[in-house]
Each structure stands twice: as structure tokens, then as C-alpha cells.
Amino acid sequence: MKILVVSDIHRDKKRLDAILNEHTDASLRISLGDSELSSRTLSDKDILAVKGNYPFDAGIGYDHVLTVSGRRWLLTHGHKYGVRNQLEELYAAMQDQTCEVALYGHTHRAAWTKRKGCLMINPGSISQSRDDKPESYLIVSGDAAQWVFSWYDARYHTLIDRIEHRVG
């Protein structure tokens, strides 16, 4: 399994295309909102997308629950849960929907937090980082026993950080 996760593209189609070309072997492609691309463009690129805080595309929903290796993942942009300031509301949404992982965007900061066996992961922004880290995206690999979350520099496709999570 290899999942490509991007967020906060903000119309940087050139960088998105470079990332997609770098990871043609990804079995799933996810955008966590604020792409500023149409639902048709995302669909044509075979990208599963959730809506961000702008622009609003009627063809895309705010949240999506995905099953990966028998476990539930919540995909969201995160603005509805106040992720810029705290993760309590996102964690509560995970609990409500019995999700083990939440992938979220909005902050433009690559980050991860583990709480009571649940992971909340932000791939960062591929176009506009808002901290001292480079623009980034996430690759998830693994199997039913363990997942590896790896952040990559969006310009050079080099590894920035990585964590492992035992499933269950």
C-alpha cells in the first residue's frame, strides 16, 4: 500500500503535477482541501478530495471516512474543528466516527500528534509553508500490522521526517 496525501495546494498545479509524477505508484491520492482546483480537475487526476475553507466546490464534501487495512481514517481540511489553535474538536470527531487516524490540513504546517492510540496527522502545504519547515506532502505505506507516515519536501522530494504506527 502506498498513499499520497497533499493539502493546501492553492492552485500550484505545477508542483502538484511534479509530485504526482514522482509517485505514479501510489495506490491512492488524497487532497485535504484548499486545492483551489475544480472537483473535475481533481477527479481527472484520480484524487480523492475533501473541501477546504475556500473556494467552495459543491462537488466536494467537508469530511470523508476511509477504511485502510480494516481501520477507519477521517479525512478533513480541519478548519471546522479549529485545528489552527487546538486538536480537541478533531479528536472528538475521530471518537464520534470511530476513526484511528485523522488526516487534516489548514495550518500549512507538517505535524503529528498521538492521543490514546489515535493519530492526527497534517502533511503540511505543498505550496505555502507557514513555519520554518519546507513545503511538504505525506506518503503513507505499510500493511495491516504497521503504517509508516513519511513527510517529503515538496520541491526536492527528499525525506524530511517519518513515524511508524503499529495498527490496533
Write the layout of secondary structure elements.
Layout: E1 2-6, H1 13-22, E2 28-31, H2 39-44, E3 48-49, E4 63-68, E5 71-76, H3 88-96, E6 101-103, E7 110-115, E8 118-123, E9 136-142, E10 146-153, E11 159-166
Parallel strand pairs: 1-2, 2-3, 5-6, 6-8
Antiparallel strand pairs: 1-9, 4-5, 7-8, 9-10, 10-11
Written overview of the protein:
The chain has 168 residues and is of the alpha/beta class. It has one domain (2-166): Metallo-dependent phosphatases (Purple Acid Phosphatase, chain A, domain 2, 4-Layer Sandwich). It has 3 helices and 11 strands. It has helices spanning 13-22, 39-44, 88-96, and strands at 2-6, 28-31, 48-49, 63-68, 71-76, 101-103, 110-115, 118-123, 136-142, 146-153, 159-166. The strands form 2 sheets. Strands 3-2-1-9-10-11 form a 6-stranded mixed beta sheet. Strands 4-5-6-8-7 form a 5-stranded mixed beta sheet, covered by helices on one side. Strand 10 (146-153) and strand 11 (159-166) form a beta hairpin. The longest helix is centred in the N-terminal third of the chain and has 10 residues, at 13-22. It is globular and about 40 Å long. The relative contact order is 0.18. The model has no long low-confidence stretch (mean pLDDT 95).
